[in-house]
Amino acid sequence: MTETAREGMRNGAREGMRKPGEPVREGAVRPPICCCIVGRQDAGKTTLLQGLVAHWAARGLRVAVLKHDGHVDAAVQAGHALGVPAAPVDDWEKPGSDTVRYAQSGAAATLVAGGGQSLLRMVRHPGTQNLDDLARGMLAWMTQVGDAPDVLAAEGWKKSDWPKVAVVRRPADVDWLQSEHLANLRAVYCGERLDDALQRVAALGRRVYHGAELTELADDILGWSASD
C-alpha cells in the first residue's frame, strides 16, 4: 500500500504510534496494518486467513476482514454479456431473512443490529473493485463507533497494491502464481508439501511458509507495515 493511500485511511484522525496490542491513547488512531491473502479457488485462502485472524485476536489485536466474492462478480459479468442487468444471486444472508426481503423490495441499504453487533449491506455499492476505498470506509465506520482496527486483512483483490500472501497447495496453483506477476507479493503460504513445485515457488524470491509456520507468518505480517 502506498503512503498516500495509508494517509488517506487515517480519515483525518490524529496518528498515535504504538506497538501491536498496546492501548491507544485517547484521541489517537494508528493507521492499521494491511495485507491481502490471494490465490486460486480452493487453494486455502479462507482457512489461512481464519488462522491469522485467530492468532492476531489472541494477541489482543482488533482485526477487520474484507472479502471479495468472485462468484458474484462472475454472475454480474455474465449477465452484462447477455444484456441482462438482473441482480446477482448470492448466499451472504439467510434466504427469506428480513434484510433479504427488504432488499428485494427495493431498499438501497439494510442494517440489522442487536446484542452489541450490527451488519450493514449496501444493495448498490459502486467501486467494490477498489480495495483502498472499501477499506477507508470500513475504517471510518469502525473508528466512528470507537473500535478502530489494528489490522485490515483482505481475501482477494489480487490486482491491488496491498502487501500480499499467495496461497498454494497444488501444482496448478503454482502455475497460476507464476503467471500472475502479483504486485507487492511478500510471501507464499503452502498448506501442503508440493516437493518439486516448491522449487518454482522459491525461484520467485519470496519467503515460503508451510502449514506449521502459520504463527510465524502472522507475526511477520505485523512487521511489514514498518516500510509500507
Strand and helix map with partners:
Layout: H1 3-9, E1 14-15, E2 28-29, E3 33-38, H2 45-58, E4 63-67, H3 70-81, H4 98-105, E5 109-114, E6 117-122, H5 131-144, E7 151-155, E8 164-168, H6 171-180, E9 185-190, H7 196-202, E10 207-210, H8 214-224
Parallel strand pairs: 1-2, 3-7, 3-8, 4-7, 8-9, 9-10
Antiparallel strand pairs: 5-6
Region (Disordered): 1-26
Domain Molybdopterin-guanine dinucleotide biosynthesis protein B (MobB): 36-72, 91-188
Protein name: Molybdopterin-guanine dinucleotide biosynthesis protein B
Can you offer a commentary on this structure?
- The structure is a single chain.
- This protein has 228 residues and is α/β, with parallel strands linked by helices.
- The chain has two domains: 3-16 and 26-68 and 128-227, Rossmann fold, CATH 3.40.50; 73-127, no CATH class.
- Helices cover 36% and strands 21% of the residues.
- It contains eight helices and ten strands.
- A six-stranded parallel β-sheet has the order 4-7-3-8-9-10, with helices on both faces. A two-stranded parallel sheet has the order 1-2.
- A hairpin with a 2-residue loop joins strand 5 (109-114) and strand 6 (117-122).
- Helix 2 packs across helix 8.
- The N and C termini lie close together (6 Å).
- InterPro entries: MGD_biosynthesis_adapter, MobB_dom, P-loop_NTPase.
- This is Molybdopterin-guanine dinucleotide biosynthesis protein B.
- Residues 36-72, 91-188 form the Molybdopterin-guanine dinucleotide biosynthesis protein B (MobB) domain.
